[in-house]
Please model this.
Amino acid sequence: MNNKQMKKITLITLLFLVSCINPNSYENKAKIVESMATSVTMENKDIPFIEAKDLMFKMTQKSYDSIVVDARSESEQLVSMIPGAVPKHVFDKNKENFKDKEIFTYCTIGARSSAYARELIKNGFKATSLKGGVLSWAQAGGIFDNGGVQTKKVKFLNDAWNILPEGYEGVTP
Model:
């Protein structure tokens, strides 16, 4: 079995296990998110990652000249995004304008954004994935944006991913 197949099997197993767990029973959501995020980073050692608090700090600096790209689905983006982020489909239409910028990608936990960061790197971009995605962003106290309005709502594809900290609201189909 090659490395790519092993990564897929590990990720599928992780996703299967997460989908079988009732999120209301989590006692320490931050540890679960960290464990899942670490698993994704270990499976994607060829991709650089940034911690949520480090990205938050970077975004407050006057010298900040990077772009944050949301690699989640459009339905997830309609509920909320990291403030200042650009949807992937919008970025893709204009990405040649950003060859000289640092690009930070994110999704729910890091799997989709890692794959997207890898694609960008392969095409000559400087891309980094947010370790733990929106789940880590929320664990770090990050606020989300919905059309210019701050929110603590995050959409997930199913309830198994709703492992947000107290004060945040998971939205599922």
User: Anything to note?
Assistant: The two ends are 36 Å apart (CA to CA).
